[in-house]
Every structure is written in C-alpha cells, then in structure tokens.
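User: I'm new to structure prediction. If I give you an amino acid sequence, what do you actually give back? Let's try with this one:
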Amino acid sequence: MTTDGLPDAHARLTGCGTALVTPFKENGELDEPALRAFVDWQIQEGVHFLVPCGSTGEAATMSLEEHRRVVEITVEQASGRVPVVAGAGSNDTQKAIALSREMQSAGATHLLHTSPMYNKPPQRGIVAHYRAIADAVNLPIVVYNVPSRTGSNVEAATTLELAEHENIIAVKEASGNLAQITEIIRNSPPRFSVLSGDDSFTVAVMAEGGDGVISVTSNVVPNLVAELTECLALGDLVQARDLSHRLAPWTIAAFVESNPIPSKAALALMGKMRNVLRLPLVPLAEAHSALLRSSLEAVGAIGAQ
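Assistant: Good question. You get back a string of structure tokens that encode the predicted 3D arrangement of the chain. For your 305 residues, that looks like this:
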C-alpha cells in the first residue's frame, strides 16, 4: 500500500486474483448492481486482486463504453482495498495502447495484455508489441500467454526478455507447459511475478516458486482459492494438497464447456447473478447440469439437495 492507502501499482502481484465474470441483465445490458455486489463479495472472501474484462469477463463482446464502465465500477467498489488489473489486450498494438490509456483513466492499477491473437507474430513481433505498450502507458503490465486462444505461444525466452522492461511486472502463464513456466520462474528478476493462468496448475506452479494464480474457479469459491495460494506461499503443501483435492470437482466442472459458461451457470445457482451470456456464448448444456450441481455441493458453494 502507498501512504494514501491505495495499492502500490509496482508492488508484486501475488496470491489469488479473480478473472471476474461480468453480470448481465436479461436484456443483455450490464447489471451494475450485481457487479458491485460481486466485487464486494470477492474482496470480503479474501481474494488478493481483481481482473475485470478478460476472456472470462466476455470483454470480446463489449463496446468500449461498456468495457470502461465495468472497470470503473470495479475500481469504485474495490475502493483501494485490492489492485484492479484491467484487461486491455488487442491484436492491434495501437488499439491496445488506446485501450490501455482508457483503462488508466478509469482507475485501473495494472493492465492485463494478452499476446496478439490471429496475427500470429513471430517472437520478435511479440516483444515489439509489448514494449510499445509499456513505453506508451505508465501502468504496470501483466503479459498473458494463452496459446489455446491466441494461436501462438510466448516462449520463455521472450517472457524473460520482456521482464527486463521496468513496466512489465508479471506474466499470467496459461501455456499448460510446466517446463516453460519453471524456466521463467528460475530466470526472471525478483520483482517479476509468475502467475498460473490455469487453475489446475496452481499447486505445481507455486510449488516451483511461482507467485499465485489468476483464477476462474475463484469466481465461485474465492475463499478456498485464496486460502490455497496462502498455504502455498507459506510452504504448507499438506494443507494446500487437501484444499486442491477439495476443489478438484469444481476445477473440473468449471471447464466442462468454454469458460465462462460453467461459471455463469454456477453463480446463477448461487444467486449471485443471472445466467446470461452474450452470443456466441450460450448457457450450459443441460447434459452438464448434474455434474455442475454436484461439484458445487462438493465445495460447499450450494447446499446438498
């Protein structure tokens, strides 16, 4: 924290950050009261930072005005209690810079930038993309490597090169390649955070020396995922293993269809928001309903029938 009580923007990101889902009304508009209540609940349940407007938040279907409003509400509701890492990615570097500036003016403390999708730039193009953003915007940047969505991998050597830039302070690693992730952990500077981008990899990444997770599953069980990261940070592998095993049914069910489809269905069952998604995403298939309910019962998110 800074002397004025606000999060220190250049402090290392650690622990559990929730990749927030975005609540919508039945007509598809942003549900502001539900979002405010959801942000409050997440913080009260112990998450360490919030990540609005990523893929989990359906940012790809938002207008610029909606994107900005979601971040503004998250910042207002967080009220300095936790950092707010706003999604600002684009496969057009100039658009990414413009969106980053919008997120800065909306009050975000950090920016999350996915590597450029569709274009499939070479590694030197990825470096140039991130450096251009980092040079243009005075907010710390989290690199997001998610080859399953972008079509290209940010190699370990590329991430380590980017880590040399003072404004690039972390990576959300969702490559699914533990050898690559551990190479980054071993060789990155002390100020640089390595965060798991896959809930199923959190224990492995943190046991290897990583710093936390940007989590989908914590939308539903923020207290358990936050506790998991705290145990791992303390080196309590016994308790961490027990928590991971307890979380396993939901960790599996959360990805039975494309994220955030299962999370929205779960949160609707919990009464946190409506089960409304924007096309081309659709509600969870009925065939998965029993699995979803049983997983939520297993982690205590809802009572047993």
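You can read the tokens as a compact description of the fold. Here is one thing that stands out. Residues 1-7 have pLDDT under 50 and may be disordered.
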